[in-house]
Write a structure and sequence with these properties.
The chain has a six-stranded mixed sheet with strand order 1-2-10-7-8-9, with helices on both faces. A four-stranded parallel sheet has the order 5-4-3-6, with helices on both faces. Helices cover 45% and strands 14% of the residues. The protein has helices spanning 7-17, 36-39, 56-66, 69-72, 83-95, 109-117, 129-143, 154-170, 185-197, 213-220, 243-252, 261-275, 281-291, and strands spanning 26-28, 42-46, 76-79, 99-103, 121-124, 146-147, 176-180, 202-208, 255-259, 303-307. By secondary structure, it is α/β, with parallel strands linked by helices. The chain contains 13 helices and ten strands. The protein is globular, with a radius of gyration of 18 Å. α8 crosses α9 (185-197) and α9 packs parallel to α11 (243-252). β3, α5 (83-95) and β4 form a beta-alpha-beta unit.
Length: 316
């Protein structure tokens, strides 16, 4: 099994991706009219303002520019529910190499349009990310292309971990980080960095009830593959994670809670009404866990929710 990155790799990633990604703001949720009692101790890390619209740019650009030039010559390939594909398309554009992105049929139409704008070749294959990923791996091997995994990749995880560096540099008093889970790359990187900087910090993961991949794996004590998926938050919906991510999450994440699609929609609407933040369903998942009271903070607990992706599917 691939070893997880350490703090030195995350700090190196922060230097490497500087100039390719945005240092996104951390803002207080208050003042708000609705749910003011819950928002009082809440900060929002706005990765929805990141280039390509999600945190994924951090890991993708770190992985791509870490590769030797000869490995990149023929191009790069990945599979994605949408956001990682956009990030790899951007990384290919930035590195000047062609990018091919395999996507499931459930991908949002706006993601397809954005991929075309970044000049990526798009292949729609399969019903879920796992199906697209098998096709992407076969294509990468046949064409001798560099494959960029969306979550089970050391350089990708290190890139995502730079989010925790930014949060805690300016907000060292944060007690708890609320982080959405798809395959687990985001929460793995954040957990590694946050625990290194502040061992007592709590990391809470959030998954859709219709795609409880890591929740069920932790309960089973082993990596499980879901028989099916039932969520509109397709960027949070692989049927199976990876041993690398499960190992980090089991060690460093205190709890994984589940949220309903409608709870993510309401959180997205709340973010739009109260703060003008356009978050997709996955981007609102961390806030949904708090507003729906699946995570109940203690008195005076200082929290930071990662708003991990932009979109309008939460309030269209």
């Amino acid at each position: 099994m691939t070893k997880a990155p350490g703090m030195s790799e995350i700090r190196a990633a922060a230097e490497r991706i500087r100039g390719f990604v945005r240092r996104t703001p951390v803002i207080p949720a208050v003042p708000v009219r609705e749910h003011s009692e819950l928002a009082r101790g809440l900060l929002l890390k706005l990765e929805s303002l990141q280039v390509t619209g999600s945190f994924k740019a951090r890991g993708a650009i770190n992985a791509v520019i870490s590769l030797p030039a000869e490995r990149l010559q023929r191009g790069i390939v990945t599979a994605s529910g949408g956001n990682h594909g956009l990030a790899v398309a951007y990384a290919g554009w930035a590195a000047g190499v062609p990018a091919t992105v395999f996507l499931p049929r459930s991908v949002a139409a706006d993601k397809l349009a954005k991929l075309a704008a970044w000049r990526a070749r798009v292949v729609v294959s399969g019903e879920a990310w796992d199906d697209s990923n098998r096709a992407a791996l076969q294509h990468a091997e046949a064409e001798n292309l560099a494959y960029i995994h969306p979550f089970a990749d050391r350089a990708v995880i290190a890139g995502q971990g730079t989010i925790a560096l930014e949060i805690l540099e300016k907000n060292p008093d944060v007690d708890t980080l609320l982080v959405a889970i798809g395959g687990g790359g985001l929460i793995s990187g954040i957990a590694i960095a946050a625990k290194a900087l502040k061992p007592g910090i709590r990391i809470i993961g959030i998954e859709p009830t219709g795609a409880p991949t890591l929740h069920d794996s932790i309960a089973a004590g082993r990596l499980v593959e879901l028989a099916g998926l039932d969520t509109a938050a397709v960027t949070l919906a692989p049927r199976r994670s990876a041993e690398l991510n499960l190992a980090v999450i089991k060690e460093a994440v205190e709890q994984v809670v589940l949220v309903e699609d409608e709870e993510m929609r309401e959180a997205a609407r709340w973010l739009w009404r109260e703060a003008g933040i356009g978050a997709e369903l996955s981007g609102a998942a961390a806030v949904a866990a708090l507003l729906a009271r699946h995570y109940r903070p203690g008195a005076d607990e200082r929290m930071c929710a990662v708003v991990c992706g932009a979109g309008t599917d939460g309030f269209d």
